[in-house]
Amino acid sequence: MRAAKPFGFRMKAVTALAFATAFVLPAGAAIFEDGEARRAILEMRQRVDALQVSGQRSADEVRRLADENAQLRRSLLDLQTQIEALRAEDAKMRGQNEQLLRDVSELQRRQKDMAQGVEERLKQFEPVKVNLDGLEFQADPAEKRDFEAALAVFRSGKFAEATSAFGGFVRQYPRSGFVPSARFWLGNSQYATREYKEAIGNFQRMLSEAPTHARAPEAALSIANCQIELKDTRSARKTLEDLVRSYPQSEAALAAKERLSRLK
Burial level of 73, CB count in 10 A (0-12/13-18/19+)? Predict the structure, then answer.
């Protein structure tokens, strides 16, 4: 395949062909006159010049289009680069947003756990309803825990330790709804360890502070038992008689009548 000829070479060929055509006459034709020949030459030159100008313009247009095409390609490359950068930035921001969502979710979970923990700790200090020996009252969880612990010690037969536990309870919670019952069991612990005078004092204080308590009749009977152990029969008889008068329908009153019969 032949290589394309340069544009200038093609124009020269066109010019030569034009001049050659102008002077080639058909067979039998007369030679042009000088004026007509000059006019023909001038017209041919004008045509050649027009062709050269047109060719130059075409070349300039080609170069202009080539430059514009190159500029357009550069602009497209720049735009593509910017698009890729924006995509990368968008992916980065999506990743950051996802991380932020995970962080927020984790923070909310921790706050929920903390709130639950605080609520549980607060519940440890909220008053609880207690029903004991026919009484209903509100008590702190610590009071309830300490009273039940002291009662468990008494029931295990460790009366000296129970005396210490109930004594500490009434000193620490002097206004507690557990106090009448605590004094009753404190007196019983002291009776078991033969601390009769101390037991009488706690039973009497219980009766004076809570005379209608469900265990009041038992406390009165326990006072009489302590007095009998101390050989104070006269005081014991009076205590039993008062018990029968104050709590005639109680089981302790029946036991008091029996003790009175033996004391006579």
Answer: exposed
Contact criterion met (CB below 8 Å) for 216 and 187: no
Please, what is the angle between helix 251-263 and helix 216-229, to 10°?
20
Nearest-angstrom CA–CA distance, 95 and 88 = 11
d(CA 169, CA 182): 7
Q: Which amino acid is at 20?
A: A
Residue reference for tokens 């124009």:
11
Overall residue count recorded for the chain in this entry: 264
pLDDT in tens, 187-226: 999 999 999 999 999 999 999 999 999 999 999 999 999 9
pTM of the model: 0.56
**Identity at 197, one-letter amino acid code:** K
Give the homologous superfamily in CATH for domain 128-263.
Tetratricopeptide repeat domain (1.25.40.10)
Strand ranges (E), the chain: 128-132, 135-139
Here the tokens at position 102 are 């995970």
Q: How does pLDDT run across 181-196, given as a tens digit for each residue?
A: 999 999 999 999 999 9
Reading phi first (left if > 0) and then psi (alpha if -120 to 50, else beta), residue 194 is in: left
- The answer to whether 183 and 189 have CB atoms below 8 angstroms apart is no
